[in-house]
Amino acid sequence: MPAMADVADLRRALRSHTPQPLDRTASELKVAAVAAIARDGADGAELLFIHRAEDPRDPWSGHMAFPGGRVDPADRDPLAAAVRETVEEIGLDLERDGELIGRLSDVAAVGRGRPLALVIEPYVFAVGPAAELSPNHEVAGLVWVPMAYLLDRGNRSTLP
């Protein structure tokens, strides 16, 4: 995929994307949803990552992540869970201050290096440059990462 110049380019790319679902027939399988939040920055599109707070009970403790979490019985669907979790974790109401621009393919969850009985549905939202963020206790920090940095293969590595 070519480098994204701005959120409009990301929006156009997602229009032609068909998300690929993972098999969800296992009875013990849970579903979570995350919000990949994009904005236009000084050097093009940027994605918001949260640095998760350290917690020994959390399999993603200390990780860089998108806001999100498990789908609760009260959530009408995974998209609603992504929106709810984003408000809870970073104080951003995506229904009011964001625009849903697409959905990515399902991701099989891995925690502490092991596969989990969890499927993650990622949704992509666009926000304006002045979106206000207020992280809760689950979030140690926030960082906007330029898409150009993420798309540069020279910046990729794997950690055990």
User: C-alpha Rg, in Å?
Assistant: 15 Å
Termini gap: 26 Å
What fraction strand? 35-45%
| SSE string | HEEEEHHEEEEH
Class based on secondary structure composition and strand pairing: alpha+beta
Q: What do you see in this structure?
A:
The structure is a single chain. By secondary structure, this protein is of the alpha+beta class. The chain contains four helices and eight strands; from the N terminus they run H-E-E-E-E-H-H-E-E-E-E-H. The protein has helices at residues 7-15, 78-90, 94-97, 147-151; strands spanning 30-41, 44-52, 64-65, 68-70, 98-103, 107-111, 114-127, 139-146. Strands 1, 2, 3, 4, 5, 6, 7 and 8 form an eight-stranded mixed sheet that branches. Strand 6 (107-111) and strand 7 form a beta hairpin. The longest helix is centred in the middle third of the chain and has 13 residues, at 78-90. The protein is globular, with a radius of gyration of 15 Å.
Reconstruct the topology from this structure.
Blueprint: H1 7-15, E1 30-41, E2 44-52, E3 64-65, E4 68-70, H2 78-90, H3 94-97, E5 98-103, E6 107-111, E7 114-127, E8 139-146, H4 147-151
Parallel strand pairs: 1-7
Antiparallel strand pairs: 1-2, 1-4, 2-3, 2-8, 5-7, 6-7
